[in-house]
Design brief:
Number of strands: 10
Strand order of the largest sheet: 1-2
Keywords: Isomerase
Shape: globular
Order of helices and strands: HEHHEHHEEEHHEHHHEEEHHEH
Radius of gyration: 21 Å
Largest sheet: 2 strands, antiparallel
Pfam families: GlcNAc_2-epim (PF07221)
GO molecular function: isomerase activity
Organism: Sphingobacterium zhuxiongii
Protein name: N-acylglucosamine 2-epimerase
Length: 414
């Protein structure tokens, strides 16, 4: 998707972009990756010791499908798009091996958790997200390694998961529900979000009619079913029954998901070369960012339990802040958008001031905190997906912008 940008004069200079790019490379290569290498990655068995403090102290050696699968995607993507370090691909392959060791043949889901060697701890049943993250890991590995079987397996997992999700009796344990009386959700924005992003990734490698149909279904659900024109926001929940949802549930907007979803729709629009879809998603993205903005203490809220009653979740989570940054980067690259540039800088400064543990080795980023982000915690989980994805996305985007500005395709590549 290209447009005439000759008359658009951004307020930022190439020197600013170069400085920003170098800062991001420091965050990724000198801080995040060494921290993971020294404290979190299990070199012997594969997988991630996610249950660790910000100082890298392991609180448990148990592992989770979510985190192992998403970490696998990160290493695969790093190898393919950032730096062809054989270690990245080796770790992706090693952790995929662990993941496939954990699942019983007839189980409908990958296990929720398992021990250091991959034995199911049977804490609870896994969920559809675990399966989809394994599929995402396979897509990343397929692209990095050229393994067509990995792509085919990812497709198989996705098709089975989508069929399950569309069944009338499917229910999801909604642990972030605004109501204690509603925990078995039927239609969830977050599901369509992951299905769409997975479809975009699969279709970016090769075309496929079945996957294209799923992408179309997801877009329809996200643009229409999960959009309320009265409040101009994307509610998290919908119903499969004619009775619909209680009014309280229709007012629940998990706005961090909505923001993440909207940049993913922009990415799918780019893949389709659909300017109208891109512009619609961009407009809604900006509005959701404005609504989520905490104008008193900075940063962004990630949930609104009831829009009309103005009941926001007041804690702050890292992933929601970083999804704002990713969407802004897309708009900066595509439109040289001044609004996006201003919000990007404001958000990054906020994270630098409130989320980075400046006095700890490798300066790990906090994953959450109270509204003011002034609580002191040792941490108990290390973020190995949203955070590195944001860092990688920023490096790629800034390099492309600089390359375009300088007309030299190799000037700023690492």
């Amino acid at each position: 998707m290209k447009e005439d940008l000759t008359e658009s004069i951004p307020s930022y200079s190439n020197d600013e972009l170069v400085k920003l790019l170098e800062q991001y490379k420091t965050y990724l290569f000198e801080e995040y990756l060494p921290f993971i290498d020294n404290y979190i990655y299990d070199r012997e068995n594969g997988g991630y010791f996610w249950n660790s403090t910000y100082r890298g102290k392991q609180l448990s050696t148990n592992k989770r499908t979510w985190y192992d699968a998403r970490g696998t995607w990160i290493y695969s993507y790093l190898y393919k798009h950032i730096e062809p370090n054989p270690l990245y691909l080796q770790r992706a392959k090693q952790t995929l091996g662990l993941l496939f060791k954990t699942k019983e043949k007839d189980a409908r889901f990958w296990p929720w958790s398992y021990d250091i060697l991959g034995k199911d701890l049977q804490e609870r049943e896994g969920d559809i997200y675990g399966n989809l993250f394994v599929a995402e890991a396979l897509v990343g590995y397929a692209e990095a390694s050229g393994d067509d079987n990995a792509w085919a397996k990812a497709k198989e997992i996705m098709l089975h998961a989508f069929q399950l999700y569309q069944s009338e009796d499917y229910r999801y344990l909604l642990e972030y529900s605004p109501s204690a009386d509603y925990t078995a959700a039927e239609e969830i924005l977050g599901h369509y979000m992951i299905f769409l992003h997975l479809a975009t990734s699969l279709l970016s490698i090769k075309s496929d009619e079945n996957i294209s149909q799923i992408a179309d279904s997801c877009l329809d659900a996200l643009i229409h079913q999960h959009y309320d024109s009265e409040i101009n926001l994307m509610p998290e929940l919908a119903s499969k029954s004619k009775n619909g949802l209680d009014e309280q549930l229709t007012q629940f907007v998990y706005i961090g998901h909505a923001i993440e979803t909207l940049w993913m729709i922009m990415e799918e629009a780019k893949r389709r070369d659909d300017q109208q879809l891109f512009d619609l998603a961009a407009t809604r993205f900006k509005h959701h960012v404005e609504v989520a903005n905490d104008r008193i203490f900075g940063g962004f809220f990630h949930g609104i339990d009831h829009v009309k009653e103005n009941r926001f979740l007041l804690d702050k989570v890292l992933w929601a802040q970083e999804e704002v940054l990713v969407g802004c980067l897309i708009l900066i690259e595509e439109h040289k958008d001044e609004w996006a540039w201003q919000y990007f800088n404001k958000t990054l400064r906020y994270l630098q001031e409130h989320f980075i543990n400046q006095n700890l080795p490798y300066r790990p980023w906090k994953i959450n905190g109270n509204r003011q982000m002034n609580n002191q915690e040792e941490g108990k989980r290390i973020e190995n997906y949203h955070h590195p994805r944001h860092l990688i996305f920023a490096i790629q985007t800034l390099e492309r912008i600089l390359n375009r500005n300088t007309l030299n395709l190799n000037s700023y590549e690492k």
